């Protein structure tokens, strides 16, 4: 990883308690032609995958609701967040990861998923790139209650909402998660419910 405008990149570990926080120091060639020394903290939690589960017949989507403590300490009163099903890749390919997460978190066993985009989640400070999928679900695909993997400490509520209600919840502020907003708007723009 090198460009003509970055040199002498040094990485200093600040924390590897759960994920990895590094302090990066480098020389940066500014647009005005001068080199400047820059320091940035950079949090590495690995990459992730997210999916919008949708049903065209019922005009519904399946979302999850769970405690997200960072939102609790930043303005989210009860601390719970409505999100599209998502998980961290660990060592899986994005497509395998997301199918596994769907079954663990929502209880649906789906076979077909479509990748629609990938995007950095918070590029000023977090390394994560997120792989975005959509996938159709039906009642017949339900194989368990969902709620999260048994060996993890997840406590996830599964929500089945009318697509229009979900989209409207962006306006009301009830849905306030960026990956979920991206997928709901992707669905709207591309008319996937039709
Ligand atoms: N002990 C401990 N456990 C943790 C910690 N951070 C996360 N975990 C556990 O690690 C697991 C992560 O669950 P996943 O379903 O794989 O990930 P996610 O939290 O849903 O992440 C998804 O959404 C994030 C937020 O948008 C994304 O950042 C991520 O890439 C992914 O898409 C959960 O059991 C969670 O409790 C921590 O600091 N300590
Ligand atoms: Mg998850």
TrEMBL record:
GO-annotated cellular components: cytosol
Cofactor(s) needed: Mg(2+)
Domain Nudix hydrolase: 44-183
Classification via CDD domains: NUDIX_GDPMK (cd24157)
GO process terms (BP): nucleoside phosphate metabolic process; ribose phosphate metabolic process
Domain of life of the source: Bacteria
Coiled coil: none
Catalytic activity: GDP-alpha-D-mannose + H2O = alpha-D-mannose 1-phosphate + GMP + 2 H(+)
Record-given protein name: GDP-mannose pyrophosphatase
Record organism: Olleya namhaensis
Lineage of the species this protein comes from: Bacteria, Pseudomonadati, Bacteroidota, Flavobacteriia, Flavobacteriales
